[in-house]
C-alpha cells in the first residue's frame, strides 16, 4: 500500500484516485501517522458485502458429510499431587 502525505494527496488527488482504482488501497498520513485509506468503489463494495453465517459456511464446506471418529476415551484420569 502506497503512503501519501496529506499535502501531497490534496495536490495530486486525481492521481491518488487513479492509483486506488488500479493499484489498490492508498494510505494517507497526517503528521507522519497513518490516518485514512482511500479505496476504489469495487474494494469498498467487497468490504460491505454481508458475510455468511458460521452455519452457512459449515454447510457449504467440501467436508460436509465426512464421517468423524469421535470415540470416547474411557480410561481413568491420573492422580497428581498438588
Walkthrough of the structure:
This protein is α+β, with helices and mostly antiparallel strands and 82 residues long. The protein has one domain: YefM-like fold, CATH 3.40.1620.10. Helices cover 38% and strands 18% of the residues. It has helices at residues 6-11, 13-23, 41-48, 54-59; strands at residues 2-5, 26-30, 33-38. It has a three-stranded mixed beta sheet. The longest helix is centred in the first third of the chain and has 11 residues, at 13-23. The radius of gyration is 25 Å and the shape is elongated. The model has no long low-confidence stretch (mean pLDDT 92).
CATH topology-level fold name: YefM-like fold
Q: What structural class results from the helix and strand content? A: alpha+beta
Assembly context of the chains:
single chain
> Total strand count, please?
3
Gyration radius over CA:
25 Å
Mean of all residue-level pLDDT scores: 92
In whole angstroms, the N-to-C terminal distance is: 54 Å
Element string (H = helix, E = strand): EHHEEHH
What keyword list fits this structure?
82 residues, alpha+beta, 18% strand, YefM-like fold, three-stranded mixed β-sheet, 4 helices
